[in-house]
Write a structure and sequence with these properties.
Layout lengths: L6 H19 L9 H9 L15 E6 L5 E4 L2 E4 L8 E6 L3 E6 L2 E7 L7 E2 L7 H8 L2 H12 L1
Parallel strand pairs: 3-7
Antiparallel strand pairs: 1-4, 2-3, 4-5, 5-6
């Protein structure tokens, strides 16, 4: 049994084993060849360079569009079209962007939020009556409220 004095020592011993005992000092049971020689002569030519830009890691989640026209993901809220309220949608999340799909159709794109409670709303996703409410002038609303109260 081997002993290691830490991660650095473990990595050093593993490299010695792979490049020495496992790679050159033994004959592989199936191929009847030294593993490192076989790699260098037959397999290495098939390796490709890594891409210059790393691929984006993404994930998917099934979410429900609530009555306020927002889905919740990781304690943040993202809007989607009001016509889809109460439906289940697919949310694709990456490092910088959140995309919302109805089946294969992209219906919303938002910047990825990180602080719990944050909200990203695209006004066109809201129903017409909500937009009308948002468009109201606060001063005009106060005047109308005063008029009703008299």
């Amino acid at each position: 049994m081997r002993e290691f004095r830490g991660l650095t020592d473990l990595n050093r011993q593993a490299e010695e084993w792979v490049l020495g005992i496992a790679g050159q000092d033994r004959i592989h049971g199936t191929t009847r060849e030294q593993p490192l020689r076989r790699f260098a002569e037959a397999e290495k030519i098939f390796l490709k360079d890594l891409p210059a830009v790393a691929p984006e890691l993404v994930g998917w989640a099934m979410v429900k569009l609530h009555g306020d026209c927002h889905v919740q993901f990781e304690k943040c809220r993202y809007s989607a079209p009001y016509t889809l309220v109460h439906e289940y949608l697919w949310l694709r999340y990456g490092e910088k962007v959140v995309q919302i799909y109805k089946n294969e159709l992209l219906v919303a794109v938002h910047p990825r939020l990180r602080i719990p409670g944050q909200r990203s709303t695209i006004q066109e996703h809201l129903p017409p009556e909500a937009l009308a409410y948002l468009m109201r002038d606060p001063q005009k609303c106060l005047e109308q409220a005063e008029a009703v109260g008299n």
